What we know:
Distance between the termini: 32 Å
CATH class: Mainly Alpha
Helix content: 55-70%
CATH topology: 434 Repressor (Amino-terminal Domain)
Radius of gyration: 14 Å
CATH architecture: Orthogonal Bundle
Order of helices and strands: HHHHHH
Amino acid sequence: MDVKQIIISNLKAYRQKLGYTQEDLAKVIGIDRTLISHYENGTREITLVHLNKFADLFGIETEDFLVNNSSEKKANLAFAFRSDGMEKEDLSSIAEFQKIVKNYIKMTTLAKGE
Length: 114
């Protein structure tokens, strides 16, 4: 499987596992739902900006979209955030908070020299 197909497969897997519709993703990141469909069908390239926003929303690292190893992918899915019953504003707030936490962890790790 090539890199593009891995990213597409992972985007769809995270979206479905976490209970998001294409419409949910589109609303949260401020794009049209048809663009999500194009991304998942491989007819449009996913921009890095959108990939970063998806990662923040799912509570994962952007690099996790490149994981093709099934056991590592299962672990990432197990720790990702589920969206059942959330409003757009709630999802956006959670995505922003998760981004802050991830940045804090990165900074702490760098400060420790790990």
